[in-house]
């Protein structure tokens, strides 16, 4: 879809919601919904997106939408999708008249890496036809920036503060994409709102896939990451350019996961000199400030760079 | 309508529920196995495998997801069923409140089993009693026949336009779930005609009036953030819907009686009209108690019983009418409520009489925890102590424990 066509698509997430200025979730959700191809039902886990868009009696959602709890977006989606299938089979029930209904589940990193992992795994294993969109802002932002399994090493959060002894979170980010790919589902992709046409294309592929599809969106959070709200798109771009969050998609072809890099990660793979140092990304965020002040922690910056390099190399082994 | 011809089948309680749900043919059944509920999911899986139902059966990865899946299915306008027991219901706890508060008439069979710890697979009511304030209608069954009959009536009760609440069918683990009984079953088409199609309340959505379901043509937002300015207003109608369920349970029970010959109500009294002493209780124990009442009556003791079928909503008014003339009432609680004055049923029954001029002597009998049998001899012991209370004109003990080594 071209930018011109995108602009013509209706906004299914209406303006006027109460997400923060510069919130990556708002931009991402709006773009995700630009890919909608027909009758669609949305379910969302508890989190910023849910609380800020549905404060009763207002709502920002221009499609049927349901939230029930934190850990069960994938289970709610399973039920919606199954009810539609049953009604189709019977030729009875309110959804029976539709040729197809797309089901989208939105959840944050807390609702995916941590508390919702079991429900997600179950739904993927059972093969429900739905798209799970992970809005990864790398901490429990809705409750006040607590660390999650998606929080990167060294990031300061309110439950992994940078103290005099411990420099922020001690664990590395959980490899959620590999966990999902291991379920052998038809389609997995990483996206960033900084690359909107890529995002919409992949979301459409995810909707078209028969069976479960997983979209991992990297979602900068100005409040939680401590950066100016006008920098959301730039920071998202930097995450891709440093290869911290490469853009790729993975299709299951003849039982094998086939990884393909997307632009600009593909051009970085071909021209490694274009890969930018992780320090450029880290220094722009207050959550990593303790790596630079009061004294510079070259040891930790180096460790993070090595981790990024290793992960990137491992991706290239699979994607090329 | 006249009573229809019925087929007699040998079914245990779990099979009776599974058979009824097969006839109901819901859109989605999502369940996770837990003893003593497993037979329901096993039988239902067989119906699916043999193409006897059109249901999507989803073998979910946890009870939490079982109920979450049912919630998704019902929100989408389907009919959904699940079943569980004990720890499974405890794991669902968060979603029980959400299902009820979203006003989704899901039907769930709870095959009553003791809660851990220590782990125990046998019957008591600690599981469903833990969910008594979750906003679900709770109907306790005495035998497999009633489990079958209730698994059909539940849809009509929960989906009634004045109610719109989920329904829990409670049946005693092992005592009913694994015991073969003769069960009269209705023809499939009679069941389908009785339950009809699900209808939806109309609500004011943000784009105008809409049916309360996930409808691509008339989208509404379900389960929004609802703070101190509206939450309270959304809770009061739930309270009212529960009250409105009382006459609906009776009405559906009568209508079911007309086609099946088996009429159900909120309360099922036995030889209570002239009783001086009586027990009040739930579930299968009341079948045993009926035999004991007959035995005592043959000895000239004016004994009676009141079986409470509907615990939620609690039929306080009907309880008053049924028991006011009785001199000493023993409440049988198969559940302990730690730190409370007595068991859950005792607290409700006793509370119902607070404003009444005619108040029987009321005491509590906690029994059968973890599946300990309630024998006829133990029930005779209960009646004996009630007789002593009656003579003394007061409860000699407010809470007694029956069948316990102390």
Helix-strand string of chain B: EHEHEHEHEHEHEEHEEEHEEHEEHEHEHE
Largest sheet of chain A: 8 strands, mixed
CATH top level label of the largest domain in chain B = Alpha Beta
Low-confidence region ranges of chain B? none
Q: What distance separates the N and C termini of chain B?
A: 55 Å
Kindly report the oligomeric state of this protein. heterodimer
CATH H-tier superfamily of chain A: Thiamin diphosphate (ThDP)-binding fold, Pyr/PP domains
The biggest chain-chain interface is: A-B, 52 and 49 residues
Order of helices and strands of chain A: HHEHEHEHHEHEHEHHEEHHH
Number of alpha- plus pi-helical segments of chain B: 12
Coarse morphology of chain B: globular
Total beta strand runs of chain B = 18
Mean pLDDT of chain A: 97
Structural class designation of chain B: alpha/beta
Shape, principal axes of CA atoms of chain A: globular
CA-atom Rg of chain A in angstroms: 19 Å
Whole-number tally of structural domains of chain A:
1
The largest pleated sheet of chain B is described as:
7 strands, mixed
CATH overall fold name of chain A: Rossmann fold
Keywords summarizing the entry:
heterodimer, A: 320 residues, alpha/beta, Rossmann fold, 8 strands, globular, B: 406 residues, seven-stranded mixed sheet, 39% helix
Characterization of the model:
The complex is a heterodimer of chains A (320) and B (406). By secondary structure, chain A is an alpha/beta fold. Chain A has one domain (3-319): Thiamin diphosphate (ThDP)-binding fold, Pyr/PP domains (Rossmann fold). Chain A has helices at 3-8, 24-34, 48-53, 73-90, 110-114, 117-126, 176-181, 196-208, 222-225, 232-241, 265-270, 278-282, 298-319, and strands at 40-44, 65-67, 102-108, 131-136, 187-192, 213-218, 248-253, 256-261. Chain A has an 8-stranded mixed sheet with strand order 2-1-3-4-6-5-7-8, sandwiched between helices. The longest helix of chain A has 22 residues, at 298-319. Chain A is globular, with a radius of gyration of 19 Å. Chain B is 39% helix and 21% strand. In chain B, helix 6 (144-158) packs across helix 8 (231-260) and helix 9 (285-298) packs across helix 12. Chain B has 406 residues and is of the alpha/beta class. Chain B has a 7-stranded mixed sheet, sandwiched between helices. In chain B, strand 9 (202-205) and strand 10 (208-211) form a beta hairpin. Chain B has helices spanning 13-24, 38-49, 63-75, 86-101, 126-130, 144-158, 188-195, 231-260, 285-298, 316-323, 344-352, 376-392, and strands at residues 7-11, 28-31, 56-59, 80-84, 107-112, 137-140, 167-172, 181-185, 202-205, 208-211, 221-222, 267-270, 277-281, 303-308, 310-312, 328-333, 361-367, 399-402. The model of chain B has no long low-confidence stretch (mean pLDDT 98). The chains are: A alpha/beta (320), B alpha/beta (406). At the A-B interface, strand 1, strand 2, helix 4 and helix 6 of A face strand 3, helix 3, helix 4 and strand 11 of B. Strand 2 of chain A pairs parallel with strand 11 (221-222) of chain B.
